[in-house]
Write a structure and sequence with these properties.
The chain has about 140 residues and is α+β, with helices and mostly antiparallel strands. The protein has five helices and eight strands. It has one domain: 3-Layer(aba) Sandwich (Chemotaxis protein chec).
């Protein structure tokens, strides 16, 4: 389970370090690769451990190739997917199209989201966290 918020930087080549705690969790889960995608709900990058990505692929395979709405979603989501390796220093190379999508500046934030990890531009993450959440959107995780 990925949790926590970690401030980092991203260089001009698109390299950023995956925080040690998150790397340790990947290793503990036997994960050696991640898949990066544009997150459809806000301008952030979703990092999927390969096992989670494979589960998602299996669900997508069940969709009808003639279902317009399903295929439109597959196109938007899967076309942004990039399989990436961590280098020996735990760095991830974020492709230019994904960096542009998320409007990254120098400062970025890695956020544990349970089964996945998100990568945000720091200013965008701070603005999102500062925005008040409407009461009807707050989930009771204890139900």
């Amino acid at each position: 389970m990925f949790i926590g918020t970690y401030n980092h930087t991203i260089d001009s080549k698109g390299r950023t370090s995956l925080p040690a705690r998150l790397r340790e969790q990947l290793v503990a889960d036997g994960e050696s690769k991640i898949v990066l995608t544009a997150f459809p709900h806000w301008r952030a990058i979703q990092a999927w451990p390969m096992s989670e990505w494979k589960r998602l692929e299996e669900k997508v395979k069940q969709l009808s190739p003639l279902d317009y709405i399903a295929q439109k979603n597959v196109l938007r989501f899967f076309s942004t997917a990039q399989e990436v390796d961590l280098d020996d220093h735990g760095r991830v190379l974020v492709p230019p199209a994904l960096r542009n999508y998320a409007a990254f500046s120098k400062d970025v934030v890695w956020v544990g989201m349970g089964r996945t990890i998100q990568l945000w531009d720091q200013a965008m993450h701070e603005a999102s966290m500062a925005a008040e959440m409407p009461a009807h959107e707050i989930l009771d995780f204890f139900k």
